[in-house]
Amino acid sequence: MRRLLIAAMLVGLLAGCGSRTELKPKPGMSVVPKAEAAKKPATPTQLMTPTTQARPDRKADLLTQSDARPDDPFDLPPGPNNGKQGASPQGQ
To answer: Could you tell me the sign of the dihedral formed by the alpha carbons of 79, 83, 85, 90, in that order?
Structure first.
């Protein structure tokens, strides 16, 4: 059992050793088609770079100081019939 676990870990480590080369289409395949509104086709580097929509800027999310919330005049408790139309307050 232990040998099987060690062998599985070695195979997993070996599978993680891949080469990092520049992206190229295989022979017989065409490059990525040009987008409708683009003036020229995107390069593989441009396709692999995430946009700001995919990876937003986190500077806007930081809370620099806490402020007390003002009272909300519309934050009212439910009425006697819990907001139901036509129900009587006594539940009859």
So the answer is: negative
Of residues 22, 28, 20, the one with CA closest to residue 44 = 22
In tens, the pLDDT along 45-56 reads 888 888 877 876
CB 76 within 8 Å of CB 82: no
Contact of 81 with 89, CB cutoff 8 Å: yes
Greatest extent of the chain over all pairs of C-alpha atoms, in Å: 80
Window from 51-55, 67-71, 72-76, 86-90 with minimum mean pLDDT? 86-90
**Using CA atoms, how far apart are residues 82 and 39, in angstroms rounded to an integer?**
59
Reading the block at residue 27, the tokens are 């022979």
pLDDT at 67: 77
